[in-house]
Specification:
It contains ten helices and 17 strands. The chain is α/β, with parallel strands linked by helices and 291 residues long.
Length: 291
């Protein structure tokens, strides 16, 4: 059992957890992840290690409540326990002194971009961060990024804060302004990462993305996280999760991620309809979802 030292919402439906896990905290490196399970019959969910504290013996994860398991995880609070936290898993980010390094995080992808931005700065790079959200309230880790990056740009889809547009648009603007960019790391929804790859491909800018396929065991045994990179099959959990963006088959990745979409929607609906909090909300709001 792993104790939650602190849990707090940092945006709507996005929660930051500090979890007591001294062995993982000691070994983890930027880009690696853990797989958590909240209970005996729970789903195994991969989550990037956003930070660690060696003195406290803790790791930090940031969770967006998108499905049944992540929503149930976000109902846990300070002092509660998570049954399993396995890691660190995956290969660390490849870090070197590239020159000017840009870390791009779309939505909760900023939580994945953050530890690599820290490592890139420590390696002597001039670091730029571009983080985005649907609106101002969905922008996360802005202050943390400002603490480690030389420049930080915030974008919002609706223009309620920062640059009005997508993270891709801001990157295009920097390129069109003839800014030197030697390396890009992009993390977020698959369409966003694909769009970033197309922008940087034209400029021949070295670009990596952190892939987010369906994943079960995290050791390469189940094969659920298969992806095609450079026309070869890879297992993201052990060969990645970061890969050359210009070699990733994003179309196949997106199709595979949709395989269980209807099952996920059904599981989430059932969970909402049977949790005490959800029942109360449905009654109060007059919703028909559970009828």
């Amino acid at each position: 059992m792993y104790k939650i030292i602190n849990a707090e919402f940092i945006a709507p439906n996005i929660k930051r957890f500090r979890i007591e896990a001294p062995k993982i905290a000691k070994k983890r490196k930027a880009g690696q992840f853990v797989i958590i399970r909240t209970g005996q019959n729970g789903e195994r969910v991969p989550l990037t290690i956003a930070d660690s504290n060696l003195d406290e013996g803790s790791i930090t994860i940031i969770v967006q409540g998108a499905g049944k398991t992540t929503q149930s995880l976000n109902e846990l609070g300070t002092g509660d326990f998570i049954m399993d936290v396995v890691g660190p898993l995956g290969k660390p980010s490849h870090i070197e002194k590239f020159g000017v390094a840009v870390s791009i995080g779309g939505g909760v992808g900023a939580a994945i971009a953050y530890p690599t931005a820290v490592a890139l700065k420590q390696a002597g790079n001039y670091t730029i961060s571009i983080i985005g959200g649907r609106s101002k309230e969905y922008v996360i880790l802005e202050n943390e990024m400002k603490d480690v990056c030389d420049e930080v740009f915030v974008t919002t889809d609706d223009g309620s804060y920062g640059y009005h547009g997508f993270v891709t648009d801001k990157l295009k603007e920097l390129i069109e302004a003839k800014r030197q960019i030697d390396f890009v790391l992009a993390i977020g929804p698959i369409p966003m990462m694909k769009a970033i790859a197309e922008v940087t491909r034209k400029q021949k800018i070295k670009t990596f993305v952190s892939l987010n396929p369906i994943m079960v065991d995290g050791t390469g045994m189940c094969g659920g996280c298969r992806a095609i990179v450079d026309n070869k099959t890879v297992f993201v959990c052990v060969d990645g999760p970061e890969f050359d963006a210009h070699k990733v088959d994003f179309e196949l990745l997106e199709r595979r991620n949709r395989i269980y979409r209807s099952d996920e929607e059904t599981a989430l609906k059932n969970y909402r309809c049977h949790s005490e909090e959800a029942i109360l909300n449905n009654v109060e709001d007059g919703l028909n979802e559970c009828k």
